């Protein structure tokens, strides 16, 4: 299972970290040697720490998140403010080194697909360079279908075809939450998009994975 799944999103706060942590712990329970990374982040390391917890100490925090910056702005801008610019080649080299030691690698981006991660590169550039499978996460609310289709359109055709989409239910459903999946099915093939329920603000992957339906969804996703 030598593969790279790149978890990107339609926007910041879409649920990328929730999904990455869930997938990491799920694959661990399946006895798959998995690495999970958030290579670049800004505004604190909370997301990387959640991934660290989900991996159960199988990776250290600096391996999960080598580049982190204080300001809550785009990582590329935060890095410039600290005079520590990040280059695409550095991130790719880190991922490749990790990939050699694991059967599967999960990578969480920062913000949306085209949010600047470093000097002249974004998540799309990383996906292409790593030949990864994109997993697009969207909050299941009004506007999600448009945002998903725009994100898919921004990917090169090869990666658009292999992409998977995950609708993450919000704490409070709106008028579109119940119908988005049906509408999305007109554009995204069956088996390429998935739904997850609201898991709680401070959810525990271990508890969530006791639910057979969620385990089935994650198994189909990977």
Describe the protein's architecture and organization:
This protein has helices spanning 16-29, 46-55, 61-64, 75-81, 88-99, 123-130, 144-153, 157-162, 180-184, 205-208, 212-221, and strands spanning 3-9, 34-37, 40-42, 67-69, 104-108, 116-118, 121-122, 133-139, 164-168, 193-196. It is of the alpha/beta class and 222 residues long. The chain has a single domain (3-221), classed as P-loop containing nucleotide triphosphate hydrolases (Rossmann fold, 3-Layer(aba) Sandwich), CATH 3.40.50. The strands form three sheets. The protein has a six-stranded parallel β-sheet with strand order 2-5-1-8-9-10, sandwiched between helices. α1 (16-29) runs parallel beside α2 and α5 packs across α6 (123-130). It is globular and about 45 Å long. The termini are close together.
Percent strand equals 15-25%
CATH level 3 topology: Rossmann fold
From the N-terminal CA to the C-terminal CA, the straight-line distance is: 10 Å
Q: Using the alpha-carbon principal axes, give the shape.
A: globular
CATH architecture: 3-Layer(aba) Sandwich
Sheet with the most strands? 6 strands, parallel
Oligomer: single chain
Mean pLDDT: 95
**What's the CATH superfamily, by name?**
P-loop containing nucleotide triphosphate hydrolases
Count every helix, treating DSSP H or I runs of 4 or more residues as helices.
Answer: 11
The number of distinct structural domains comes to: 1
SS-derived structural category: alpha/beta
- Point out poorly predicted stretches: none
State the order of secondary-structure elements, H for helix, E for strand: EHEEHHEHHEEEHEHHEHEHH
> How helical, in percent, are the residues?
40-55%
* Topology, number of strands: 10
Widest sheet: strand ordering:
2-5-1-8-9-10
What is the CATH class? Alpha Beta
């Amino acid at each position: 299972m030598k593969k790279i799944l790149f978890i990107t999103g339609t926007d910041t706060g879409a649920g990328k970290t929730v999904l990455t942590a869930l997938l990491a712990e799920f694959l661990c329970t399946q006895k798959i040697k998995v690495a999970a990374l958030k290579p670049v982040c800004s505004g604190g390391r909370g997301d990387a720490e959640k991934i660290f917890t989900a991996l159960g100490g199988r990776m250290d925090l600096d391996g999960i998140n080598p580049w982190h910056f204080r300001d809550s702005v785009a990582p590329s801008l935060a890095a410039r403010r600290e005079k520590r610019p990040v280059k695409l080649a550095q991130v790719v080299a880190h991922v490749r080194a990790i990939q050699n030691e694991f059967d599967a690698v999960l990578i969480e981006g920062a913000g949306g697909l085209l949010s600047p991660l470093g000097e002249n590169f974004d998540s799309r550039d990383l996906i292409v360079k790593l030949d990864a499978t994109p997993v697009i996460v969207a909050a299941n609310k009004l506007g999600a279908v448009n945002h998903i289709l725009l994100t898919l359109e921004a990917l090169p055709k090869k990666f658009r075809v292999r992409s998977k989409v995950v609708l993450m239910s919000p704490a409070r459903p709106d008028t579109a939450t119940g119908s988005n999946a049906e509408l999305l099915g007109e554009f995204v093939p069956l088996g390429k998009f998935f739904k997850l329920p609201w898991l709680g603000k401070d959810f525990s992957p271990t508890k969530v994975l006791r639910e057979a339906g969620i385990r089935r969804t994650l198994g189909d996703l990977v």
